[in-house]
Amino acid sequence: MGEISFKENELYQEIELFVDGEKIGEAEVEIKGKMLSRLSIFPPYQDKGYGTQIVSMLNEKYGCNVLWVNADNARAIHTYEKNGYAISKPTMYLMERN
């Protein structure tokens, strides 16, 4: 039988977010493309400024300069705009088959 080995994914950095030792959310950064690929702040910690501060910290640490956000997620759009992001032209469309 051959030797088992692992190759770790160097493309994404998965991040757990804590405040005073308590987990408040999670994030994921796509390293090569400098993309904030996921940010989730748990509901009890939303609307307290954590998202804005975390986006700023991730931008600084990983050089993030692009992300995707659902068009109907006004809260997230506001957070990202406060960190210098602006809505760009649409490059993807939701398509449904009847």
Give a short overview:
The chain has 98 residues and is of the alpha+beta class. It has two helices and four strands.
Key features of this structure:
98 residues; Aminopeptidase; 4-stranded mixed β-sheet; 4 strands; 22% helix; 27% strand; globular
Structure description:
The chain is an alpha+beta fold. The protein has one domain: 3-Layer(aba) Sandwich (Aminopeptidase). It has two helices and four strands; from the N terminus they run E-E-E-H-E-H. Strands 1-2-3-4 form a four-stranded mixed beta sheet, covered by helices on one side. Strand 3, helix 1 (50-62) and strand 4 (66-67) form a beta-alpha-beta unit.
The parts where pLDDT drops under 50 for at least 5 residues are: none
Main β-sheet description: 4 strands, mixed
How many distinct domains? Answer: 1
Mean pLDDT: 89
Helix content: 10-25%
Q: Rg to the nearest angstrom?
A: 16 Å
Please provide the ordered H/E string of secondary-structure elements.
EEEHEH
Please give the count of helices.
Answer: 2
The CATH superfamily is: Gcn5-related N-acetyltransferase (GNAT)
Global outline: globular
Architecture in CATH? 3-Layer(aba) Sandwich
Tally of DSSP β-strands: 4
CATH class category: Alpha Beta
Instruction: Briefly note the structural class of the backbone.
Output: alpha+beta
C-alpha termini separation: 51 Å
Q: How are strands sequenced across the largest beta sheet?
A: 1-2-3-4
Estimate the strand proportion: 25-35%
CATH topology: Aminopeptidase
